[in-house]
């Protein structure tokens, strides 16, 4: 029962990713060929590998992480706060800082990670990029050999599925139907690469990522039938 989980033990998270190179022509010939093969099914015949490359951030083999936002509750008595912070910059530093946070503060059996579709996207993407960057994976992310009930992750999409594994609901739709303030600002996921590579405006991306992290926490509160966070309870650090 999620109502019994101590909110102080959950680390909420969201990541933003982009293609590892700014454009298809920046890839060497072998990577271009591998991208062609990897995306053949998704592209069909009418879209070229070069045209499809703007979506490369979806795959850890061809993308990279540019921001990880995390949020956590601090509840003392009747005072509730939700603190949000972000890791950004060079990818290896992002991953190292996130790993240090998890290893030092969320490494106990009662600790849980929570995102929206994070079991399918965020967590595997982070783990794969750590391997690619030759970094150790924190125990909380290393799921090899673990049984389903031993995996220390919560996923608001999975909670909303109620066992209906063919069902997908976006974060934006779920916030709308649950009466959660919209997490989206002036950009959406399809624009992140342009904002990063062309506009070079990482602050916009950080704001976008943090809003998603807050939205995940709000959905989790809704699922527990608890009051939503108000602006005064949200602290950016």
From TrEMBL:
InterPro entries, A to Z: 3'-5'_exonuclease_PolB-like, RNaseH-like_sf, RNaseH_sf
Pfam families named in the record: DNA_pol_B_exo2
Signal peptide: none
Gene Ontology molecular function, alphabetical: nucleic acid binding
Alphabetized SUPFAM superfamilies for the sequence: Ribonuclease H-like (SSF53098)
Domain Predicted 3'-5' exonuclease PolB-like: 62-224
Protein name: Predicted 3'-5' exonuclease PolB-like domain-containing protein
Species of origin: Flavobacterium nitrogenifigens
């Amino acid at each position: 029962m999620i109502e019994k989980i101590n909110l102080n033990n959950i680390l909420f998270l969201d990541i933003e990713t982009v293609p590892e190179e700014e454009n298809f022509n920046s890839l060497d010939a072998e990577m271009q060929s591998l991208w062609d093969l990897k995306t053949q099914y998704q592209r069909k015949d009418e879209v070229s590998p070069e045209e499809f490359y703007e979506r490369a951030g979806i795959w850890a083999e061809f993308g990279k992480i540019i921001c990880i936002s995390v949020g956590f509750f601090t509840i003392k008595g009747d005072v509730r706060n939700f603190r949000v912070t972000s890791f950004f910059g060079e990818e290896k530093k992002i991953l190292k800082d996130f790993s240090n946070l998890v290893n030092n503060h969320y490494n106990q059996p009662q600790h849980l990670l929570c995102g929206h579709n994070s079991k399918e996207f965020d967590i595997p993407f982070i783990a794969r990029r750590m391997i690619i960057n030759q970094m150790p994976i924190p125990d909380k992310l290393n799921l090899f050999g673990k049984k389903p009930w031993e995996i220390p992750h919560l996923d608001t999409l999975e909670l909303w599925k109620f066992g209906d594994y063919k069902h997908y609901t976006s974060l934006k739709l779920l916030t709308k139907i649950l009466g959660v303030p919209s997490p989206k600002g002036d950009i959406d996921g399809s624009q992140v690469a342009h904002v990063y590579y062309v506009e070079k405006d990482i602050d916009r991306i950080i704001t976008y990522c943090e809003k998603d992290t807050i939205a995940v926490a709000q959905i989790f509160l809704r699922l527990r039938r608890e009051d939503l966070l108000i602006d005064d309870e949200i602290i950016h650090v």
